[in-house]
């Protein structure tokens, strides 16, 4: 019997990360707050996704893309030297080893395949670090689709290499000059663009955010991380399940996919946010980009700009399911600073020969801190998702180190 069903309180389905409730809700979060034309488009995406996930043809085609093009399954790497230094047993789920260098490809291949099934010829996407844009451009090239990627001007400066990669792959990159010129504004712009292009285009959302069905659908496409890790832990760990499961949280897709594999176990789930982008840890209830969730806001309820050294964590909110998991107490959300993340990146490079993305370095920074202050008791087993590789951050790091 599952642990959750022994306790009073929330329904096990919610705690074990199944389907959202009526109207795309995770508890009081989620929903579909969008203009009428997008509500209809979201309904079509939901219907297509429900059909596709039941279709063995779709499932096999996606499994093949993930295996032959994305390089799955990714290894579960024991971080031997770092584990000895920290006094915990740390295992890394290596999404940095996927094609294009981050977990984003898992979701994008799923949505791109869904788009072709729906007869859509173009993918629209927003991007922060550029990883989702690169993954979208890659999947579009692979499946013979067009790609239009919206990206904040500030991120275009910070992530010049990824901008070049997207253009090399044949995608159109549209600079967004409004607001903080980062991910939030790129997302708004991409949604606005989709309103006028729903017939021929699929909006390929890059995280577990946006209107229903995106938070659910993206988590399902990222569930492969958690499912693989669960099987790998069952084979590798004496207890079969780690004591702790840790992942960084921007919108929350790598964390949601990882948590989904362990939600029905005794593992303690921890999402690590950037100090300046802590939607789950410090946000308040609001509506943005089509869903009700936790967002950083000022006294007047205006969305506050996020600030993080990691472009992929520079989002002022968090996906609705994370807000729900937090409220249930099933997952906790903590924050680390830019400096802690940079130090963690250097430490992983020196101890294990892995240069992580600065986003992923946030998760490690918390592991390092918690191993030191008793938050992770000595000898605990810790599964951490290493969401991406650090190549894109080399120029940022070069200025600091
Ligand atoms: C985009 C990105 C993130 C943050 O996105 P989530 O949806 O929270 O997973 C984390 N790590 C890397 C490497 C990324 O590219």
TrEMBL record:
Modified residues (N6-(pyridoxal phosphate)lysine): 104
Essential cofactor(s): pyridoxal 5'-phosphate
This enzyme's EC code(s): 4.2.1.20
A GO MF label: tryptophan synthase activity
UniProt KW Metal-binding keyword: no
Keywords of this entry: Amino-acid biosynthesis, Aromatic amino acid biosynthesis, Lyase, Pyridoxal phosphate, Tryptophan biosynthesis
Reactions performed catalytically: (1S,2R)-1-C-(indol-3-yl)glycerol 3-phosphate + L-serine = D-glyceraldehyde 3-phosphate + L-tryptophan + H2O
Domain Tryptophan synthase beta chain-like PALP, chain residue ranges per copy: 70-388
Pathway: Amino-acid biosynthesis; L-tryptophan biosynthesis; L-tryptophan from chorismate: step 5/5
InterPro entries tied to this protein: Trp_synth_b_CS, Trp_synth_beta, Trp_synth_beta/beta-like, TrpB-like_PALP, TrpB-like_PALP_sf
Segments of this protein annotated with the region Disordered: 1-30
Amino-acid biosynthesis as UniProt keyword: yes
Stored PANTHER family: TRYPTOPHAN SYNTHASE, TRYPTOPHAN SYNTHASE-RELATED
HAMAP family in the cross-refs: Trp_synth_beta
Family the entry assigns: Belongs to the TrpB family.
Subunit-level organization: Tetramer of two alpha and two beta chains.
Role: The beta subunit is responsible for the synthesis of L-tryptophan from indole and L-serine.
Protein name as catalogued: Tryptophan synthase beta chain
């Amino acid at each position: 019997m599952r642990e959750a069903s022994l306790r009073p309180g929330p329904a096990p389905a919610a705690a074990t990360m199944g389907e959202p409730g009526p109207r795309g809700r995770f508890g009081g979060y989620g929903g579909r707050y969008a203009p009428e034309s997008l509500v209809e488009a979201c309904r079509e995406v939901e219907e297509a996704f429900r059909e596709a996930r039941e279709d063995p043809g779709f499932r096999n085609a996606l499994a093949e893309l993930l295996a032959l093009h994305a390089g799955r399954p990714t290894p579960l790497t024991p971080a031997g030297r770092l584990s000895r230094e920290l006094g915990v047993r740390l295992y890394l789920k290596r999404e940095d080893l996927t094609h294009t260098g981050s977990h984003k490809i898992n979701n994008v291949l799923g949505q791109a395949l869904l788009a072709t099934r729906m007869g859509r010829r173009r993918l629209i996407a927003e991007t922060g670090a550029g990883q989702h844009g690169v993954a979208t451009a890659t999947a579009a090239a692979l499946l013979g689709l067009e790609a239009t990627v919206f990206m904040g001007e500030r991120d275009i400066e910070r992530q010049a290499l990824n901008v070049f990669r997207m253009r090399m792959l044949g995608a159109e990159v549209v600079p967004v000059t409004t607001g903080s010129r980062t991910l939030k504004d790129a997302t708004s712009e991409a949604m606005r663009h989709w309103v006028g292009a729903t017939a021929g285009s699929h909006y390929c959302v890059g995280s577990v955010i946006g209107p229903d069905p995106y938070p659910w659908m993206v988590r399902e496409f990222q569930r492969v991380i958690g499912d693989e890790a669960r099987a790998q832990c069952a084979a590798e760990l004496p207890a079969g399940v780690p004591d702790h499961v840790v992942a960084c949280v921007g919108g929350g897709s790598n964390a949601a996919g990882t948590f989904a594999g362990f939600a029905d176990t005794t593992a303690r789930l921890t999402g690590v946010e950037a100090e300046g982008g802590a939607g789950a840890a410090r946000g308040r209830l609001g509506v943005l980009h089509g869903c009700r969730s936790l967002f950083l806001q000022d006294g007047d309820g205006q969305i506050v700009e996020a600030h993080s050294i990691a472009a992929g964590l520079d989002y002022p909110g968090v996906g609705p399911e994370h807000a729900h998991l937090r409220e249930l107490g099933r997952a906790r959300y903590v924050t680390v600073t830019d400096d802690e993340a940079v130090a963690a990146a250097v430490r992983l490079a020196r101890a294990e020969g892995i240069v992580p993305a600065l986003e992923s370095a946030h998760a490690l920074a918390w592991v390092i801190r918690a191993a030191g202050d008793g938050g992770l008791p000595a000898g605990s087993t810790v599964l951490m998702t290493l969401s991406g590789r650090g190549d894109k951050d080399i120029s940022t790091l070069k200025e600091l180190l």
